Amino acid sequence: MPYVAYYRVSTLKQGESGLGLEAQQAAVQAYVPDPAAIVATFQEIESGKNNGRPELAKAVAECRRLGATLLVAKLDRMSRDAAYILRLDVPLWPWTCPSSTP
Predict the structure, then answer these.
(1) Mean pLDDT per 10-residue section of the chain, whose length is 102 residues
(2) Cα–Cα distance between 97 and 28 in angstroms, integer?
(3) What domain count does the chain have?
């Protein structure tokens, strides 16, 4: 099964230091032991309160194009707005949250 990984940190400082990103990448890698299964990765530095995130939109589009599963280390990496997550039309593209999936 192909996967698209999405990583987000809230601040430029987190993005430059790798804090947060490294932990997210480790969680995704632990969930998908075969790195070749991750067919695309998207990363951005943006507040979870801002739902207008171009890299998330690209990740969703890539999932739809490839029939891939969207991987996020934690659900709040997608958004802090539950209603926004529900409006992402989940039936068209499944997503998986490694931190809560065995």
Answers:
(1) 88 63 86 91 83 87 87 76 66 46 44
(2) 9
(3) 1
